[in-house]
């Protein structure tokens, strides 16, 4: 079964393709009316294994990669959704295999030591675990270190391949960069958005099915699913490898349909599926800020967190009363120098951190903390199960307004955008030329 290239225009009434015409010619696909289907294509009879230019993808490969998605979503995925995910994972593994093969054909080698280093960094940064703990975690959720390392190999291979075969041929002139900087200077004070996107390509005949799949993804995300995990496994855009993150952009840089929908979002909200040329998009607003203007949420805070826990069996009424007494005691602490002693008298725990960015706090706490003076405490927050906490502000370093744009950074961003577009075409060609057998 061949992998389809991006949809071409279909003309049901057009003439048939002349004999001997190249099979990969770009143009109108002609389909006569009154089509008769010979044979039966039953997707339920297909097992999730494939040979990709001779390299096998096993059912175990699919199961272990699928387990990573299920774990990222706490297993809150229906059986029906799992089957759709399974086929998407298989498509991703096929793309990954093509990328690794193409890198190898270009004499690009990713050493095992580099993969091990990346694996250790992922374990620490994303899971806050060492390698041994990460190995145990993956085995516990039904995956394996080999599965994650293969994904790492695919991503590193593709990145290095693009650096060799695509980036050298991407040109951004100084004039283009200067024009962008001039426009951004004019846009100073306007809003800039950090957008996450899941893009699903849809040919005309599959549009409804893809739309329904996109709706199910949105439902899973609204129930607490990981946007980054879904983007990595579902999205067919080049940003899938970074969890769908488009970076900081202005709405004018987005297609009109996405810009209109994004304008109404608040950080943490998503919208979709939105029909765009060639398919559907799901948009998630990660954050927003004002262009070339200092954002108070970039302030670096020195905080002390003071917390108390409740014994088992504590009622809501008792918890509310104790939380009120705790909050009043904290207000009388008279600054960060005295709060430790007050906390000891209450049997409370104190944790200090002087490198917290305000924007990294949950939304409601951001507003509360940014409105506090040094030595003041936040309203109490928490639950009976987790205990009650307050934050005391011990210091604050406000961000400086940045009125200048870095020429090299702007050029790098423009080059990355063009590389991503060329990468999509590159992968499309690899799919088109691949020999794939499903078992």
From TrEMBL:
Residues 1-28 are annotated as: Disordered. Coiled coil: none annotated. Residues 190-287 form the PpiC domain. Residues 1-25 have a biased composition (Low complexity). Keywords: Chaperone, Isomerase, Periplasm, Rotamase, Signal. GO terms for molecular function: peptidyl-prolyl cis-trans isomerase activity. This is Parvulin-like PPIase. It comes from Novosphingobium anseongense.
